[in-house]
Design brief:
Pfam family, one: AzlD
Low-confidence stretches: none
Number of strands: 0
Strand content: under 5%
Structural class: mainly alpha
Order of helices and strands: HHHHH
Shape: elongated
Mean pLDDT: 90
Helix content: over 70%
Number of domains: 2
InterPro entries: Brnchd-chn_aa_trnsp_AzlD
Oligomer: single chain
Protein name: AzlD domain-containing protein
Organism: Pseudoalteromonas qingdaonensis
Keywords: Membrane, Transmembrane, Transmembrane helix
Radius of gyration: 19 Å
Length: about 100
């Protein structure tokens, strides 16, 4: 278990180091930078969508799903307030109130 964690940490550090260290001659072109800009939203979407719409390993697209309601509150709050603190706090309050 520890070996796996250490290896994953080394792989993650190595891949970040190659892209971020200025002294290395490796440069990413503008097309690749544009392509890589979609990776974070894609990974985050792959994480949250199953949690929100499949909480018990079955589709739950109703107002009785606290994950879905809290996610919608988070989206609306983020759009209106542009505050990560307000978004997090309000969506967590809604989620725990519905649970």
């Amino acid at each position: 278990m520890i070996t796996t964690i250490l290896l994953m940490a080394a792989i993650t550090f190595g891949s970040r180091y190659l892209f971020l260290h200025r002294a290395l001659p490796f440069r990413v072109g503008p097309k690749m930078q544009r392509f890589l800009s979609f990776s974070a939203p894609a990974v985050l979407t792959a994480i949250w969508v199953p949690i929100v719409v499949l909480p018990d390993n079955q589709w739950q697209l109703s107002y009785q799903n606290p994950y879905l309601v809290a996610a919608l509150v988070a989206i609306i709050t983020a759009y209106k307030s542009h505050s990560i603190y307000a978004t997090t706090l309000l969506s967590m309050v809604v989620f725990f109130a519905l649970r």
